[in-house]
Amino acid sequence: MDVIIHGKPYNGSSQKTPGLDSVLCNRIVDGFFNSMGSINEAAFLVVDATYWNNEWYSIYTFELYKGIRDKDDRQSFFAISIVLQKQYYCLVSEVYKKLKKVCSDYVVGKYISDKRKYIVSDLEDKLLFEGLVKEISRDYTNLLEDFDNGFKHLHGSQANIFYNPIDCDAKAFVQSLRLNGRVIVCENTPTKDYLLDNVDKIKSEFINAQNTIKVRDNEIAGLKKELSDVKATLSARRQQSDKQFREWENGTAALKNENETLKSLNESYVSTINKYRNKFTEIVNIAKVVDKDNKYQSEKQQSGMKSSVIGNRSKLLIVSFTNTMLLIFLTIILCAKSCTDNSVRDIDEIGNVNDDELVSDTVATKGVTDTISTSDRNCDLSIFNIYDSTPLVDGSIIDEGTSVYIMVKEIDNYKLHTDNLKDGDKIKIKENFKVYPIDSSKPIIISYRSDDINKTNPRNKITLHINE
């Protein structure tokens, strides 16, 4: 058994027993000096199996590190290494106890103070070293085993494998040393019994974790299915909305054509009515002349009974003709009004043509020269909820952020106007947008009109209230 002490009182310093190869000694000392601080513990034992110069060596280094200060009050360390050639100790726990006791009983007070600070400038005092070697050898025995072929020739740095002193006499410890070349014994390492006691707990936690994962996986699968169903529903509703939109467009085009036809027919009726109005005026004027002539004949009494009879017949004929023309005139007016009213009613039921567009019909049926209304034309302004394609009537209450789109029969020089709607100047017809009020306590007003606000048609304006 050879012994080395090494550490850093000021700088690196060491001393060895005479039988140890100096090169191997320097290798051990330099290795620990260069790796100082790699294990941040107060005290620990490093067991190495080293193949050197065609021989196996077992090296047991007990190191004091955490809290050790050098003469300049810097972080330092103190270590005792026992070196065996061709053999290794079977009872590593005894090595740990022996070196720990030597540090406590001999090193502290001679090399290091009880405050864990160096009290020597170097480790070259031979008397102190010889006393330390005697302290190690006193009452120390251990079982030895020869190195076998199970030990691996390792190159480079080894991984740190930790054992508690309680477990370091087991065969598992020797096997770890064979395969890794280095094992560290430290009291802060959990014992194998402690780890075994926690195996059941770890297994239980593992099973619980797996069950939780399964539950989460099922929840995720369910959410994915719900998401897929929602997407399918939204796609179907969008297709339905597109279909309805195309139907509305086609219906609007058909109604426009029908409206143009009714306008042409109405103009024909107006022309005919004006024609008969002129004829009626002529007849009335003739009746007035005849009546005036009869009065003149009566006053003069220049004619006899025959003349009177002729006058009366003429008058009766004229009155009869006048009544006939009046009947024809009234019949034409009634027919024109009936046709116009039915057309207006049919179109209004669909909601794409309004009374303002047929105002000339009303003028014709009345037989007067009323002026055309100064109100904007009805443009069938409609606002639809994008999620269920339901129209929002004037005065509807909706949630803030509801997605909607606007449908309207577009007219030149007419524009969308909004009041109390965020980004109202950016909305467009037939494009989705979300409803956010500027002031949630006030309603939102959306209208489609000409630039003259005084001509706003009530049918072209929709008021929405935000649900509080």
UniProtKB/TrEMBL annotation:
This is Uncharacterized protein.
